[in-house]
Structure of ATP-binding cassette domain-containing protein:
Amino acid sequence: MTGLAIAAHGLRKSYGDKTVLDGIDLNVPQGTVFSLLGPNGAGKTTAVKILSTLVTADAGDLRVGGHDLASQAQAARAEIGVTGQFSAVDGLITGEENMLLMADLHHLSKREGRRVAAELLERFDLVEAAKKPASTYSGGMKRRLDIAMTLVGSPRIIFLDEPTTGLDPRSRHTMWGIIRELVTGGVTVFLTTQYLEEADELADRIAVLHDGRIAAEGTAQELKRLIPGGHVRLRFSDPAAHRSAAAALPGAARDEEALTLQLPSDGSQRDLRAVLDRLDAAGIEADELTVHTPDLDDVFFALTSSAPAPAAVPTQPNQPQETVR
Ligand SMILES: Nc1ncnc2c1ncn2[C@@H]1O[C@H](COP(=O)(O)OP(=O)(O)OP(=O)(O)O)[C@@H](O)[C@H]1O
Ligand SMILES: [Mg+2]
C-alpha cells in the first residue's frame, strides 16, 4: 500500500441504530488533496474523526500514513494534524499563546516552539494580532489561527473539516493558497467542504457521501460527466417572440412566466449554431442566451437528493438546479 497516505476499506460506523458510514472505501495518494462532500449529517465529520484517531470505527481496515489504526494509532497520530469543524482556539489567551501551547503539546523545545510559532503567525498574516486575546479575532482570523495551530507539529497528513466555512471570498482564496502550498511541499490534505467550488478548485479527487455510502468518486471532471445536465437557455421580453421561438424550437421546455425556453445542449459550437440558425430563419431575436454546462452543484444535487439512491452512474438524473452563468 505504498504511496497511499490514507487507505480505508470497509469503514463502518453507527451511532445507536443509525448507520452513519456503511462500509466505505477511501484511498488518498500521498501529496494529493482529497475532498469528501456530502449534505449536512452525511458523516463527513465522523469520517474525519475516525481517520484522525479521535473516534474508533466499528469495522474497517484503516491505514493512515501506512499505520494500521487498530494497532498503531499512536504512530498514525504522530503524522497527522486535524483542524476540526469547530474551532480549537482558546479565546482567553492570545494567538501567540495558543500557538505556543500547541508547540508544548508537540514537545518542541521553548526555543523551537517560539521559532515555529513566529514563522506560522507570519505565514498566516497574524503577526499584528498575535498579542491580542483570540476572542477578539474575526471568524476568518480565528480560522487561520486554527489551521496555523494544526501545522505546528509539521504533520504530513492534514485533515481539514470545512476549513473555509464562514470565510469571506478573499480569506477563502488565501486559505486555498495555503492549502496548495502545503500540497506542493508534499503534504496530503483530506478536506471536507460544503463548497463545491472549493472541491473543484483544490481536490485531485472528490467523493460524494450519501446515505452512508460513496455515491460517486472521481476527479471533478469525471463527476461532472456523470450528469448530462447541459442546456441552452433563451430569455425573451416579448411574449410574442417567446411564442414564435417555442414554435421554431420544438422540444424546448417553456416557462411562460419567465418567458424562457430551455433546450438540452452539450454547449458545443455546432449545437449553438443550430439553435441560432433556427431562430434566425424564423426572424426571432432572443434577449439573452446562456449556456449552462453541468457543474459540481448539479452533480451534488443529483447524487444527494432524497430520490432513490443513485447508482455510480445515474441513468435518470434529476433536473439540475438552474443557475445562469
Ligand atoms: N457522538 C455522536 N452520537 C450520536 N450521533 C452522532 C454523533 N456524532 C455524529 N452523529 C450523527 O452522525 C451523523 C453524521 O454526523 P456528521 O457530524 O459526521 O455529519 P457531517 O457530514 O459532518 O455534517 P455537517 O455537514 O452538518 O457537518 C448525524 O446524523 C449525526 O447526528
Ligand atoms: Mg461536519
Remarks:
- Residues 169-184 form the longest helix (16 residues).
- The pocket of adenosine-5'-triphosphate (ligand 1) is lined by residues 15, 18, 20, 38, 40-46, 85 (CB under 6 Å).
- The two ends are 43 Å apart (CA to CA).
